[in-house]
C-alpha cells in the first residue's frame, strides 16, 4: 500500500476515534491548553489553519479544508516540539514544494503566537 494512502487512512481512523471519544472530552483537552492557540489557529487573518486542515479532535473546528493532512495524533507525529514549531515557522525547509505559508519567516505570526499555536496543536 502506498505510504501516503496508509497515512491518510490512519489519520482518518484517528479522527473517527477522536470524535467517538466524545465531544465533551475533546473540548476539555483543548480547553486545558487555553483558548489562545485555538483563536490564532482559527483566525482567518492569522493562522487560518482550518483553510487547509481538518481538526477532528476539536468540536469547534467547523468547515475545515482538505488540502493538507488532518491535525490528529500530533504528539505521536511530532514528538519533538521543536520540529513541529519549525514546521509552522517555515514548512518549506522540510518540503520546498509545500503550500503551507511560512508563518514565522514571513512574520505572519509572532514568536509568541507560534508558541501558542504549537501548544494548541499538540493538544489534539
User: Helical proportion?
Assistant: 40-55%
Count of distinct structural domains: 1
Radius of gyration: 14 Å
Oligomer: single chain
Instruction: Provide a count of the helices.
Output: 6
Arithmetic mean of pLDDT:
81
Biggest beta sheet summary = none
The H-and-E topology, N to C, reads as HHHHHH
Structural class: mainly alpha
What do we call the CATH topology? Cytochrome Bc1 Complex, Chain D, domain 2
N-to-C CA distance: 27 Å
- CATH level-4 homologous superfamily: Cytochrome c-like domain
- What proportion strand? under 5%
Corresponding CATH architecture: Orthogonal Bundle
Quick one: overall form? globular
**Number of separate strands:** 0
Low-confidence stretches: 6-33
What's the topology here?
Layout: H1 3-20, H2 23-32, H3 35-42, H4 74-77, H5 81-89, H6 111-122
Helix pairs in contact: 3-6, 5-6
